[in-house]
Amino acid sequence: MNFDLKFYGRLLIRRAPVMLLLFLVSSAMGLILASRLPTTYETTARLIGQPQQISENLAASTVQIDPREEVRVLQEQLLTRTNLLDIANAHNVFEDIENMLPGDIVEAMRDASTFQASGGRGQPVLVSVRFRARTPQIAADVVNDYVTRMLAENARQRTGAASGTLSFFEQEVQRLNSELNLRSAAITAFQRENADALPGDQNFRLQRLSLLQERQAAAGRERTNLENTRARTVEIFEATGRVGSVSGATLSPEERELEDLERQLSQALTTFSETAPQVQQLQRRIEVLREQVTAQATTDGASITTGPEALLALQLAEIDARIEVLNTQEVAIEEELARLEDAVARTPLNAIGLQGLERDYENVRLQYDNAVQRLAAASVGERIEVSARGQRITLIEPAAVPTSPASPNRSMIAAGGIGMGLALAAGFFLLMELLNRTVRRPIEITNRLGITPLAALPYMESRRERILRRGLRITAALVVLTGVPAVLWAIDTYYLPLDLLADRVLDRIGLG
Predict the structure, then answer these.
(1) What percentage of residues in the chain have a pLDDT greater than 90?
(2) Which end of the chain offers a freer environment for a tag, N or C, measured as fewer CB atoms within 10 Å?
(3) The sheet that has 41-50: what strands, in order across it?
(4) What are phi and psi of 233, to 5 degrees?
């Protein structure tokens, strides 16, 4: 496409009304926005996340949270609907706030608020809190209110978390102490119910069982010997009519029996206590024999000559008494053996049950010891938070009242509107030129058909047509110059302010 200034000049004049319309609309919108946009002021407060003031090697706080995460939680809690409505109403942030819907107030407050955190990973966490408002004082008041609420909430959360941790471990220690007492009572009750078959006394019971079995066997042998002696004595008497001699014949039967019983009592006391039935029986027997021996000693002192039948009766009575004593001992031994065998048989099961109870007790005791240690740590951590010695977010620079507005940049907005108008006009001209495929010049015939025309005859307008065409152009220009401002004024006055209309349009196209 060859560049022909005269041809494009005519095209520019022909398309001037539409281009002028686009330019005027965009410029007017820019100028109106530059003049109508409200002045906003912005101020900033700075906070810093300070580490724990007491060395963690000496005492650690029980509230462990990343400072950036802590700031994020505080921000979300601060920007709740209730807080934003309270702050907006308290500081009269928006004009005509009484007529605004709560949802619009909350949305506007969130749009005007900015929270920015930087640092972390070994570096101090810096927090910037900003707010845009219609007056400098409102901006400063809202930011300081934000900071006050954040610091108060941060202290409340940390002390609350530390107190909650302490309360939890106090309840845990109390619960484990009660459970420990129950386990101890269960062990005591089990040991009381099975006192005769506890595993700790098993060796003694086995030794005692072996000793009793030996004594039972010895008593059986002795009884057998006595029975044999009795039988031989009777046989000798029946055969000879005399009583066979026995050891200690110079003693009376009562004295020999008394000596024998005293020997048995001495042996019994080495094994049984004085309250044992067999020991008491021997003692009573010994007392009876001693009375008999004493009565015999008080006689005339002469040797009493007794007949063979009397001697036989005395010897048989002595043997029978000894056999009776042995029978009594065997009965006592058998009863004790039965008890010991039952206890020995129950001991393994009791050992298993007792081990289970002791194992449960030991597990609970370990949990109790750990809970006590953690309770001590929680108590120290709670004291650290209550005394404000733990990790804290503190204010290092409060919000100051701004001296100059932060927005809008009116000259930049006006220049942008004019530049946008020029770009729209130029874009319209280029778009129409690219879309127009008609042949308007001889050079286009040569370029498209490959032939060279001999001559090109232009369209000859009449005087009336020329006047009509020029009148239409002038009329269109006047309509654009006067109609566009009038239409914009009517929209701004009777429908919607142009600044709000521009905001809605930008929101619709995603640039709001």
Answers:
(1) 14
(2) N
(3) 113-120, 123-133, 41-50, 392-397
(4) -60, -45
Are residues 346 and 202 part of one domain?
A: yes
- In a shared domain, residues 345 and 424: no
In-domain check, residue 192: no
Q: What is the pLDDT of residues 246-275, one digit of tens each?
A: 444 445 676 677 777 777 776 776 677 677
Number of structural domains found in the chain: 2
- Residue 229's alpha-carbon distances to 31, 155, 320, 327, 444, in angstroms, are 147, 103, 11, 16, 162
User: Residue 321: CB partners within 8 Å, gap ≥ 6?
Assistant: 257, 285
User: What is the average pLDDT across 480-495?
Assistant: 70
How far apart are alpha carbons 125 and 118 in whole angstroms?
Answer: 6
Query: Is 465 contained in some domain?
Result: yes
Task: Give the rounded distance of the alpha carbon of 448 from its chain centre.
Answer: 81
Q: Does a structural domain hold residue 301?
A: yes
pTM, two decimals, is 0.54
Mean pLDDT along residues 151-168: 86
Residue 129, both tokens: 């809190």
Q: Is the pLDDT assigned to residue 330 strictly greater than 80?
A: yes
CA 447, 450, 456, 458 torsion-angle sign: negative
Record the tokens describing residue 299, joined without a space.
């006689």
pLDDT digits (tens, 9 = 90+) for 342-371: 888 888 888 898 889 999 999 999 999 999
Which residues neighbour 213 within 8 Å (Cβ) at sequence distance 6 or greater?
Answer: 337
User: Does the bond joining 408 to the residue before it have cis omega, within 30 degrees of 0?
Assistant: yes
Question: Does the pLDDT value for residue 220 go beyond 90?
Answer: no
Give φ, ψ of 125 to 5 degrees.
-90, 120
Name the 3-class secondary structure at 391. coil
265's tokens? 């009592």
Task: Give Cα separations from 225 to 232, 273, 278, 326, 474 (angstroms).
Answer: 10, 28, 21, 11, 161
Would the CA dihedral through 325, 331, 336, 341 be positive or negative?
positive
Residue 511, pLDDT > 60, answer: no
pLDDT digits over 13-55, tens only? 777 777 877 787 788 777 766 666 667 888 999 988 877 766 6
Q: What is the pLDDT of residue 314?
A: 80
**Domain carrying residue 287:** 197-377
Integer-rounded Cα radius of gyration of the chain: 61
